[in-house]
Write a structure and sequence with these properties.
Layout (H helix, E strand, L loop, with lengths): L7 E6 L1 H4 L8 H16 L3 E6 L2 H6 L10 H25 L4 E7 L7 H16 L2 E7 L13 H11 L4 E6 L19 E2 L22 H13 L3 E6 L5 H6 L6 E3 L8 H6 L7 E5 L1 H8 L12 E5 L7 E5 L5 E6 L4 H7 L14 E3 L2
Helix pairs in contact: 2-4, 6-7
The chain binds glutamic acid (GLU).
């Protein structure tokens, strides 16, 4: 048997992979996935498992009246269902003599660097003890604006935080299909190299099967992570042996080719969308300097046109272009008040140092 293609991976399992057509947890599929993960563990692969399915598992057990708001309903179903989900995993992994741990997180847990590092330390310690972390969003407490878009986003954060080699998104479809033309059946795209092509070219404009957790979000996350140097696979979790095939390097699903790696703080900052405390608008000269391929430039106060919101030194802020498009995120060296005093002036130290700056593709 050859060495596995990757040593450290995040596997994200979607609700539709592990539930049957009545919406109940599908034990056969779960068993098959757990047995593949156990084989990967025995071949030395470190696995972080992110599993959805709490809400579905709750729905199969609790019947709700219509008097609950959608948020309250989600809280009730997820908190009930998460127990069932994790118990099922515990039992299945136990058959392979493997221990698991339950980690429930919210988006705001990733907000400040210290908290982010705490989660990382916890996951590293579990790895040391050969315990598989089974991660999910803490749906009982994370509501609306501080929710992850979906578990694809949460898993992407874990993948970049843990510096994995690959992020495997298991859904109930085979991967990204070329829906741009009229080809029937549509062609499966086996590989996307974002250095030379854009996944949007395969997506039919106006097609709206791309809701929460849909293909569009998956591709956006895949694009972001491949920019960090992580390989991303989108594949069908119900195909028997899919994980083993992927790790054996066999073609399956869609692979986003990893680009040059990005490390450390920049990764954390890159995931700060929606968590920023304020924003600055910069002029075109400054934007050009930031995007320069020849030099690594920091954001200087001289290029700032306006300051929005209130932030303090050390907070993450959004950077907007003159026409108000978000072009990136960074950690501020000055408060919003200090920035207002310095903006447009020459000679001051950068508001955002290059090492603390992440620009959008
Ligand atoms: N956290 C939700 C659950 O366990 C799922 C979110 C998602 O599917 O992305 O049911």
């Amino acid at each position: 048997m050859s060495d596995p293609l990757y040593q450290k991976i995040v596997i994200k399992v979607g609700t539709n992979v592990i539930t049957d057509n009545r919406g109940e947890l599908d034990l056969q599929i779960l068993e098959e996935l757990v047995s593949q993960i156990s084989e990967l563990r025995s071949r030395g692969v470190e696995v972080f498992l992110v599993s959805s399915g709490a809400v579905a598992a709750g729905r199969a057990k609790v019947t709700l009246n219509e008097d609950l708001s959608p948020i309250a309903a989600r809280q009730v179903l997820s908190s009930t269902g998460q127990i069932r989900l994790i118990n099922t995993y515990t039992d299945l992994f136990e058959k392979h003599a493997l221990k698991i741990a339950q980690i429930l997180v919210t988006k705001s847990d990733f907000r400040d660097r210290q908290h982010y590092l705490n989660i990382r330390t916890c996951l590293e310690s579990l790895m040391k003890y050969d315990i598989i972390p089974v991660i999910n969003e803490n749906d009982a407490v994370s509501v609306t604006e501080l929710m992850f878009t979906d578990n694809d986003e949460l898993s992407g954060l874990i993948a970049s935080m843990m510096h994995v080699d690959a992020y495997i998104i298991l859904s109930h479809i085979d991967g990204l299909f070329d829906l741009s033309g009229d080809e029937k059946p549509p062609r499966l795209i086996t590989s996307v190299d974002i250095a030379t092509e854009h996944f949007h070219q395969y997506i039919k404009p106006g097609k709206s099967e791309f809701g929460r957790g849909g293909m569009l979000t998956k591709c956006h996350i895949a694009q972001k992570l491949s920019r960090f140097g992580i390989a991303v696979h989108i594949a069908n979790g119900q195909t028997p042996g899919i994980l083993l095939d992927l790790l054996d390097g066999k073609a399956a699903g869609t692979r986003f080719v990893p680009q040059k790696p990005v490390y450390g703080r920049k990764r954390w900052i890159a995931h700060s969308e929606g968590l920023e405390k304020g924003a600055v608008t910069i002029n075109t000269g400054a934007e050009k300097a930031l995007r320069s391929q020849e030099r690594a430039n920091s954001l200087l106060p001289v290029g700032i046109e306006s300051v929005l919101g209130a932030f303090y030194k050390g907070d993450i802020i959004r950077i907007c272009s003159e026409n108000e498009e978000t072009i990136g995120y960074g950690m501020a060296r000055y408060s919003s008040e200090e920035t207002k005093e310095l903006m447009g002036k020459k000679g001051a130290k950068p508001l955002i140092h290059y090492d603390y700056l992440y620009l959008m593709p």
